[in-house]
Design goal:
2 copies of one chain form a homodimer. Chain A has 140 residues and is an alpha+beta fold. Chain A has 3 helices and 9 strands. Chain A has a single domain, classed as Roll (2,3-Dihydroxybiphenyl 1,2-Dioxygenase, domain 1). In chain A, strands 1, 2, 3, 4, 5, 6, 7, 8 and 9 form a 9-stranded mixed β-sheet that branches. In chain A, β4 and β5 form a beta hairpin. The radius of gyration of chain A is 15 Å and the shape is globular. At the A-B interface, β1, α1 and β6 of A face β1, α1 and β6 of B.
Chain lengths: 140, 140
C-alpha cells in the first residue's frame, strides 16, 4: 500500500535560518522558500537523492503547525508522508483495521496539488502520518 | 555531502504492536524484530521502496531511547539518518560551520555495523540527525 516515502516534514521556527544551516553545515541543496497561504505554511525542500526533507515554517494565524511549534519552540520532526496509489482504498482499509483518519476522512488537496489524508498519531505510536495519492506504478 | 536518507527512526513503546499496526493498517513489509543489546534497542525495519523506517523499542536499562520515551510515552519520531561517503570529512565540515557533534565527536560503530555520528538537535531546529558512513558512489 505504501509505495514511496514522499517526504519527511520538519517544523522550524525560522525557515531562512534552517535553510542556511542545511546548506552550510550539511552541504545540502535547499529550494527557494515558497509561501503557501492556503496551507498556512512557508515551505522549502531539502533534496536528497532518494527522498525530500520538507522544512515548514508557520504562515498566517491559523497555521496547522502553530500548535506544534508552541509545544516545541526550537522546531522538530513533524510528520512522514507516504505515497499510495489509491487514497480512498487506503482510507477504507485503514478504517476497517481500526485506525483513525483526522478531520472528516475526505481527502483534501495537499500542498503538492494531490489528494492527501492525515492519520491519527495515537494510532501510530506518536507519529503523524500523511498519505498522498500518486497515481501510476512507476514508484511501486 | 548527504547522499541518501538511510532511515527515519521512530521510537515505540511496544515493537510487536507497532509492527502489527504497520503490517495490518498500512500493508507494510516489516522485518522480524532484532535485539541489539550492545545498542540498547530492539529494532524492526519497515521497508519502503526508496528508504526504511526503523521502529525502535528500548532494550535494557541504559537504552539511548529511554529518556525520549519517558517524555513521549506513546512514542514518536526520533531521528533522521543520512548517509555520507566520508564521515570524518563531514564531521570536520560540520564543526567548522559551527554545528555540534554529540558525545566526543569520534565516530562509533552503529547498529548497521558502519561508523555513525549524531548531531546536536539544538543546531538543527529540534531534529536529531544521525550520519552514517557508506563508502562508494553508488547512491550519490
Amino acid at each position: 500500500m505504501l509505495t514511496w516515502v514522499n517526504h519527511v516534514a520538519l517544523a522550524v521556527p525560522d525557515l531562512e535560518k534552517a535553510a542556511a544551516r542545511y546548506r552550510e553545515s550539511l552541504g545540502a541543496r535547499v529550494s527557494i522558500p515558497q509561501r503557501l497561504p492556503e496551507h498556512g505554511v512557508t515551505v522549502a525542500f531539502v533534496t536528497i537523492a532518494n527522498t525530500k526533507i520538507e522544512l515548514l515554517e508557520p504562515l498566517g494565524e491559523n497555521s496547522p503547525i502553530a500548535s506544534f511549534l508552541a509545544k516545541h519552540p526550537d522546531g522538530g520532526m513533524h510528520h512522514v508522508c507516504y505515497e499510495v496509489t489509491d487514497i480512498n482504498a487506503a482510507r477504507d482499509h485503514l478504517l476497517t483495521s481500526g485506525a483513525r483518519i483526522l478531520c472528516d476522512g475526505i481527502p483534501k488537496i495537499g500542498a503538492h496539488g494531490r489528494p492527501v489524508l492525515f492519520l491519527h498519531p495515537k494510532d501510530f505510536f506518536g507519529t503523524l502520518i500523511e498519505l498522498e495519492e500518486v497515481k501510476g506504478a512507476s514508484r511501486a
